[in-house]
């Protein structure tokens, strides 16, 4: 079974794009399923189910979503194998832009949309930088020149990835993405495999449920913001 | 490499119902082709197939050749973006930049290296050209997001003609743009490009040297324009100019006589 990790900001069009690509994979005789990792709520599982795609929904709740991902992905992979899937897609919203829920040797796809602003690619960090494929969506609602500029900004952050333009509404571009997914490496066992990038440092008292503000309540990993000394001018 | 486009060829696929499209259409620089057919007949699909340089892997099953050959994957999925410029109905700008900043950024990503003065001239050139197409002038300091629909489209067309310099231009429904369409076409065609435009507008359709007729997702016919049609085009252009003149008077707040529509004089 192939394991593909797909990540991108909320509402970037991941699910719409994947539904189109899964259609294409089905036409090629490949069986794909999805694990959707989200934070507090998601209805995306219903969209997959309506199309007959096997789907698992995992809500991280009050846990860091990407920590939740990494502690559960092995069991999800076993689920995929038990259903005899050819391809299991792990879909998650890269919520803090610090994590990249990408695993070494498992094909990693980053999804971003043209509407997110020209400087967004530089803000995304490992989520974009570590991807093998960058799928850019919503190209149909901006000008060609903006598409070019946006792609250029993406290229500056990730020089290595194949950049694809995908339209989640019409499915334009799904064939190339589908072909790349179908060619991905088979991964039969995740035990001992490595993430592409370390998770954020933990744990502080707030990770453990503290809600009060103040020095006395801070423990563990605490980092102070640099504030320059400002000598106040005399008020005349 | 971009100057090396000698032709594109459309090899037929099939219509929505699976009917075979018996078409081989080879277009060369300077060709202006209209794509006509009712809404839903597949005009946008045809343009999308060309933009994607389809290799029998889209729903239509069409194949697009560049210089009589299938393109290498890097041209198809990367460089292809610079080979083909697309002007669609959706030409909204969302980026947080001024017109000048945007043109600078676009030039940078097209690898156009100009000095300070060269860049200044390019910005002026694009803005001047855009202002020929619309009644509401753009200045380089205007934020992109403050442009009206007509201004956005004018800027987009000027950018395509001057800066992008893509040898193939695809236009979808330019008549909805609220700009001088005839001028826009002239600007685009003058640089020996292959231009395909989907249109419902009789003047634009007849301005084209040939037109592709679409029916239920398939190419039903390819017609060459003839002398009769050229004569008809002249009549239509006179009528169009007369309507524009009436519109202009109305915009200026004038009252019109019942005989205000006279097009023989144009």
UniProtKB/TrEMBL annotation, chain A:
<dbReference type="InterPro" id="IPR027417">
    <property type="entry name" value="P-loop_NTPase"/>
</dbReference>
<dbReference type="InterPro" id="IPR003495">
    <property type="entry name" value="CobW/HypB/UreG_nucleotide-bd"/>
</dbReference>
<feature type="domain" description="CobW/HypB/UreG nucleotide-binding">
    <location>
        <begin position="4"/>
        <end position="164"/>
    </location>
</feature>
<dbReference type="GO" id="GO:0051604">
    <property type="term" value="P:protein maturation"/>
</dbReference>
<dbReference type="Pfam" id="PF02492">
    <property type="entry name" value="cobW"/>
</dbReference>
<dbReference type="GO" id="GO:0008270">
    <property type="term" value="F:zinc ion binding"/>
</dbReference>
<protein>
    <recommendedName>
        <fullName>CobW/HypB/UreG nucleotide-binding domain-containing protein</fullName>
    </recommendedName>
</protein>
<dbReference type="InterPro" id="IPR004392">
    <property type="entry name" value="Hyd_mat_HypB"/>
</dbReference>
<dbReference type="GO" id="GO:0003924">
    <property type="term" value="F:GTPase activity"/>
</dbReference>
<dbReference type="GO" id="GO:0016151">
    <property type="term" value="F:nickel cation binding"/>
</dbReference>
């Amino acid at each position: 079974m192939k394991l593909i990790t797909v990540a991108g900001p909320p509402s970037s069009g991941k699910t719409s794009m994947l539904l189109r690509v899964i259609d294409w994979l089905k036409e090629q005789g490949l069986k794909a399923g999805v694990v959707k990792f989200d934070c507090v709520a998601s209805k995306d599982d219903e969209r997959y189910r309506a199309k007959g795609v096997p789907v698992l929904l995992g809500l991280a709740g009050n846990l860091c979503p990407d920590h939740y991902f990494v502690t559960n992905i092995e069991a999800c992979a076993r689920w995929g194998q038990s259903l005899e899937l050819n391809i299991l897609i792990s879909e998650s919203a890269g919520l803090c832009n610090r994590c990249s829920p990408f695993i070494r040797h498992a094909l990693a796809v980053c999804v971003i949309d043209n509407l997110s602003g020209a400087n967004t690619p530089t803000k995304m960090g490992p989520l974009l930088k570590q991807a093998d494929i960058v799928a850019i969506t919503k190209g149909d609602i901006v000008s060609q020149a903006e598409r070019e500029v946006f792609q250029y900004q993406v290229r500056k952050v990730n020089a290595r990835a194949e950049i694809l333009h995908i339209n989640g509404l019409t499915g334009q571009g799904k064939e190339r993405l589908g072909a790349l997914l179908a060619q991905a490496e088979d991964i039969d066992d995740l035990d001992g495999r490595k993430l592409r990038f370390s998770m954020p440092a933990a744990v502080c008292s707030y990770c453990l449920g503290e809600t009060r503000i103040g020095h006395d309540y801070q423990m563990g990993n605490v980092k102070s913001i640099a504030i320059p000394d400002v000598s106040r001018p005399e008020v005349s | 490499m971009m100057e090396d486009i000698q032709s594109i060829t459309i090899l037929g696929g099939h219509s929505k119902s699976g009917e075979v499209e018996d078409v081989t259409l080879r277009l060369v620089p300077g060709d202006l082709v209209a794509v006509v057919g009712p809404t839903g007949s597949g005009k946008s699909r045809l343009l999308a197939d060309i933009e994607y340089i389809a290799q029998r892997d889209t729903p239509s099953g069409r194949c697009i050749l560049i210089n009589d050959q299938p393109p290498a994957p890097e041209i198809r999925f990367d460089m292809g973006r610079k080979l083909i410029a697309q002007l669609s109905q959706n030409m909204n700008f969302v980026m947080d930049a001024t017109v000048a900043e945007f043109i600078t950024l676009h030039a940078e990503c097209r690898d156009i290296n100009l000095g300070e003065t060269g860049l200044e001239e390019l910005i002026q050139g694009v803005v001047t050209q855009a202002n020929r197409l619309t009644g509401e002038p753009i200045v380089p300091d205007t934020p992109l997001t403050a442009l009206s629909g007509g201004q956005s489209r004018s800027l987009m067309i000027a950018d395509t003609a001057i800066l992008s310099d893509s040898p193939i231009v695809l236009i979808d429904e330019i008549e909805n743009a609220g700009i001088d369409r005839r001028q826009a076409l002239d600007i685009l065609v003058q640089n020996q490009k292959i231009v395909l435009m989907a249109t419902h507008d009789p003047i634009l359709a007849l301005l084209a040297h040939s037109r592709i007729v679409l029916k239920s997702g398939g190419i039903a016919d390819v017609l060459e324009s003839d002398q009769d049609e050229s004569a008809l085009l002249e009549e239509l252009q006179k009528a169009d100019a007369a309507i524009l003149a009436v519109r202009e008077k109305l915009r200026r707040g004038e009252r019109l006589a019942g005989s205000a529509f006279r097009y023989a004089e144009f």
